[in-house]
Each structure stands twice: as structure tokens, then as C-alpha cells.
Amino acid sequence: MAPVVIPGVIVSYITGPVVLGYMWSYCLYGMLIIQVYLYSEMFPNDSRGIKAFVWVLFILETIYTLLITMAAWNDYGPGWGDVDTLSVYDWSWVPLPALSGILAGMAQSFYIWRISKLTTKRWVPVLIGCVMLAQVTFACYYGIRVSVEGRTFTELFALSPEITSSIENLSKLFLIGSAVCDLSITTTLVVVDAIPTNNRAHQ
């Protein structure tokens, strides 16, 4: 079959990153399955709350993987060779931004909880928690805004510059907020872990 050609557009630049994203997502989901199995085997005496948290997170990740599988199938299954499918956000994409933000927030909230147990400086977990809540809020609002304004690139580009700009800014705020939260958690855990146990007790 001859490659699909769209005047002025390099199709592989659109489809290639998406295909790689699907592949990496499946790879990471496989790692998650192994991690959940190892956790169940190695920490059977953990509290019910922690176990419930792990399984809820795993179930939501499974739902996320099912949704991107539907999106991949609709694009590269019945939509194979149809150029129009490249310009449409499938319905399965609609909950992904919000679900992505919620999953990130859940993982970050666990580390925030751990930080609160390792340090007596309460403002640190509170500050990181505020960033986490902000990025979850931006992710959910971004998903709602995109689904309301239209699920095709044509509809999004046809919107007024103010609306298009606000959607792009929401996406940036979600991604930047998530990155800032992750970096803050990592930095805090490294700093706290570097403090000797006897000194930590006196803080």
C-alpha cells in the first residue's frame, strides 16, 4: 500500500510519536504489573489503607491502558489509511487528561505523605501538596475544556485566539505543575535522606 500523503504535512511526524507513546505505555504497564505482584508478595502485612491505595491506583492505570488501547484501535484498526482519523480526538481520549492528572496526583500524594512522616517541617509537604492539587485541577479542567470546545483539530484551530491560547496554557500549567511537584518530591526526599537519623529526630 502506498504511503498516505497530505500536502504540506509529514504524516509520520503525527503518527510516529503516537505509536511510540502507545508502545511505551504498554511497556510501563507491564512493569506496573510486576511491581504490584512483588508488592503483594513482599509486603503482606501492610495496612489495609496502603493495600487499597495500591489496588485503586492499579485499577485506574488499567482503565487508562484500556482507553488508550481503544484510541489506538480506532486510529490504526478501522481508521487505517483514513486521513480524517488523524485530525479527530476519539471519544476514548476525552477522559485521558483528567485521569492522567488524577493518577499523577495519587502517586505524588503517597510521597507527600511519606515526606510528612520523615520531617517535622510541616510547611514542606503542605507546599508540595498545594502544587499537586493545582496540577490535578488544571489537568481535569483541561480535559473538560477540550471535550467541550470540540474533538477535532479543525474545531480547535477555528476557535478564537483567546480560547485556543487558554487551552494551550492549561496544558502547559498541568505539565509544568506535575514536573515541579515531582522535582520537589525528589529533592525533598534526597535532602531528608541525607540527614542522619539522630539529627532528624531533633528537628
Automatic annotation (TrEMBL):
Transmembrane in keyword set: yes
Transmembrane stretches, start-end: 20-40, 52-73, 93-112, 124-144, 173-195
Domain of life, per lineage: Eukaryota
Keywords: Membrane, Transmembrane, Transmembrane helix
Protein name (record): Uncharacterized protein
